[in-house]
Amino acid sequence: MQQTRLNNIFNSVVQRLGLFFGNPWRRLSLIIISFLLGFFLGLAISTTAGQTGYWDITMAAILLLFTELMSQFVYSRQGNVGKRRTLWLQVINVCKIGMVYSLYVAALTLGS
Question: What's the confidence (pLDDT) of residue 75?
Answer without folding.
Answer: 82
